Amino acid sequence: MSIPDASTIRLFNSPAFFRLWIGQVVSSIGDWLGFVAITALAARVGGSSPEAAISLVLSARLVPGFFFGPIAGVFVDRWDRKRTMIVCDIGRGLVLATLPFVDTIPGLVVASLAMETLTLMWGPARDASVPNLVQPQFLPQANSLSLVAAYGTFPIGSAVFALLAKVAEWLGHYNALQGLRINQESVAIYVDVATFFLSALVISTLPITRAAGRSDAPAGRADMKQTFRELAEGWHFITSNGVVRAVILGIATGLFGGGMLVPLGPLFSKDVVGAGPSGFGLLLTALGVGMAVGIVGLSVTQRHLNHQLAFVGSLFLGGTMILLGASMSTLAPALAAVAVLGVCAGGVYVLGYSILGAAVEDDLRGRIFATLYTSTRLTLLMAFALAPVLSRLLGALSNRLFHGEISLGGATIGLPGVRLTLWLGGVIILFAGMVAFRNVRTVAMDDHT
User: Fold this and answer.
1) Alpha carbon of 271 to those of 117, 268, 330, 392: distances in Å?
2) Which of 181, 389, 152, 393 is nearest to 294 (CA)?
3) Which residue from 17, 97, 239, 294 has the fewest beta carbons nearer than 10 Å?
4) Rounded Cα distance, 126 and 131, in Å
């Protein structure tokens, strides 16, 4: 068992950040539990076309990001951040409480839209509050822990959903509960509602006041002209600050390339490395273990690293690992490459958040984190939606041009669509690394002169 880094122990001696982190853990478990439950509910309601139903319901989560995501940051900077998180948690709980009584796909789409809109407010409010609760030298550890809370809770949410099948079976014997439509999905949703309410309760104890946001923000009715002026101010800062621009572009583009691994993982495991469903489970496990190693390693070594160069290096190495892993024809070397990819992913995410937390003033932080939060969610969901389509298109093109394989030096290399798509994902990440490096180098040269 590894010994926690001393700075992490001191960080958790901050009661305020500890409570915020506990609230995020509880809320994230609810997020993942709700994600699995809504997916299962969409498959059941979709009848003869479960794949189409799931795709439509999950795609509905893209829409708020396009139209509301950037503006959400303006409101986060203007409003009391603690109150924003509390209201969003309660709102998400209330929306979820209606889902057991929804029997149509349009109803699930509306619920997904509402959930995503509230999440787009909650996330930036949380991210913008962290630098106000911890000292600057502890930001990497704080962001590491936030990453653990956000993504490390996915297995917990999935396991809880599986366990709730037995709970639903037991509760189904009570006639008095029939009005609640007891089944695995509904029990999971009710538990999810409880996690959001508990998160709101925990966050209500945080010492985050209006002073942590913009002290000059208007408290009265919304002024849309002022809102768009503030939005333009945030975008101007992003476009004029090379480091901030590099971090947002690097994380968002990197997630788009790396996110393709999730929907294509089962096909890659089956058709490329011949490992079937169990192989896909091992690939996800390798990715998760790699991220954990990256987070722990970063917590120990971050003081000795140039954060900007380490961020760029993680992008380059991550893109290389996708290219290498997708080139494998057996499971073991593919697992090794995916594990290193996980290490890089943890580094990119944590270092990116740390760089932004240190580089952005508090009165702009909500807008900057909202842009990052929106970009990452949009690109990740787009990767989930586009990867299968690209795989089919590239597979058809490969069959037409190369009969699905090429020969190099006497060796035959298969070119299925899934491998070509993952290679494309690796190239996208390498491109993000080159753009980030150019921006970081330009800023370094300007500072030197």
Assistant:
1) 38, 5, 11, 13
2) 152
3) 239
4) 10
